[in-house]
Design brief:
single chain; alpha/beta; Rossmann fold; 2 domains; two-stranded antiparallel sheet; Phosphoglycerate_kinase_N; transferase; nucleotide-binding
Length: 192
């Protein structure tokens, strides 16, 4: 299930032929948005010319919270509106509180991106989220299956597999990406 809000929604509105006023739209992604909309058309409201969409509406909050109740894992990337302004912060706050409630009930909640992290911190629910990362773009790339340079560098820095035949101990580490156990590097102290 994919729930869209915030600035990302306007490209989908435009792909449906709705007016988006002066809201920002990535014109080069219109074909992709049209393709993604084909399986299921969504209801939405047109934005008058000269106006800008700055937050999701109450119907969207109801739809989102009902849909979130059916999930076991949630990845949130990007606020629902321009939450930096109090007038447009309540619905982003409502989503953050809903995720916190679900997280406390055992749902895995992953918050990706600096703005989303700022939103959950602003509402005071950051500590109950399962995972938080200010690397929103990197989080999305990881979900896409792309290789991240930093993760690759860590894999390449992993020591060779241990030749020891005894059971895994604290001086060993398992790397799930390379699927092997390696000896942890031994730190040595060299006095001056």
């Amino acid at each position: 299930m994919l729930l869209l809000g915030g600035g990302m929604i306007f490209i989908f509105h435009k792909a449906q032929g709705l007016s988006v006023g002066s809201s920002l739209v990535e014109e080069d992604k219109l074909d992709l948005a049209t393709t993604l909309l084909k399986p299921r058309q969504m209801g939405s409201s047109a934005i008058p010319d000269g106006r800008m969409g700055l937050d999701i509406g109450s119907d969207s909050i109801k739809t989102f919270t009902e849909a979130l109740d059916t999930t076991k894992t949630i990845m949130w990337n990007g606020p629902m509106g321009v939450f930096e302004f109090d007038k447009f912060a309540t619905r982003t706050g409502a989503i953050a509180k809903k995720l916190a409630d679900l997280s406390e009930k055992g749902v895995t909640t992953i918050i990706g991106g600096g703005d989303s992290v700022a939103a959950v911190e602003e509402v005071g629910v950051a500590k109950v989220m399962s995972h938080i990362s200010t690397g929103g773009g990197a989080s999305l790339e990881l979900l896409e299956g792309k290789e991240l340079p930093g993760v690759l560098a860590l894999d390449e820095a992993t020591p060779e597999p241990c030749q020891d035949s005894y059971a895994i101990s604290r001086r060993h580490q398992f790397n799930p990406r390379t699927n092997h156990v390696a000896c942890k590097p031994q730190l040595k102290f060299h006095p001056a």
